[in-house]
Design goal:
Elements: H1 12-20, E1 23-32, E2 35-44, E3 55-65, E4 74-79, H2 81-89, E5 93-94, H3 96-105
Parallel strand pairs: 1-5
Antiparallel strand pairs: 1-2, 2-3, 3-4
Protein name: Mitochondrial ribosomal protein S16
Keywords: Ribonucleoprotein, Ribosomal protein
Family: Belongs to the bacterial ribosomal protein bS16 family.
Length: 144
């Protein structure tokens, strides 16, 4: 038998400890007005976005820059691959935008996260076909 208790059986203090330990990989905004630059940071999920992070693992410049050797403008992503893999292995959850960036650089697979059962295609119909039934006409006036 498993020694893990369901979440409902835990005390408030134990639940608070579980929530407190959640770590996220997210973007922290820096830069000037209309020229944002983001640090990719590892931080406690309950802390504010601009608080001191546990670790800065990279930067992301969301403003496209035209480089002389490329035809299209590119967005700059610099990332410490080893530390990113370390934190993902420790259970850190990337936010939606960071997950998109990690897929672009090849750290996360394209199918991450796994599909939930709610988003899968339904093979068999849930509701039967609608059958048309002719209604009985109702008299609008009362009989006397």
């Amino acid at each position: 038998m498993s020694s893990v208790k369901p979440l409902l059986e835990l005390t408030k203090a134990q639940r608070r400890e579980l929530k407190k330990d959640t770590i996220k990989i997210r973007l922290a905004r820096f830069g000037r007005k209309h020229q944002p630059t983001y640090n990719i940071v590892v931080t406690n999920s309950r802390k504010a976005q601009q608080r001191l992070p546990i670790e800065v693992i990279g930067t992301y410049d969301s403003v496209p820059v035209k480089l002389p050797w490329s035809e299209e403008p590119v967005k700059d992503i610099s990332l410490d691959f080893h530390r990113t893999k370390y934190w993902l292995g420790k259970g850190a959850e990337p936010t939606e935008r960071v997950a998109w960036l990690l897929k672009k650089v090849g750290i996360l697979p394209q199918f991450w996260p796994k599909e939930s059962s709610n988003t899968k295609e339904i093979i068999r119909p849930i509701v039967e076909d609608i059958k048309e039934v002719q209604e009985i006409p109702v008299e609008l006036t009362r009989k006397r």
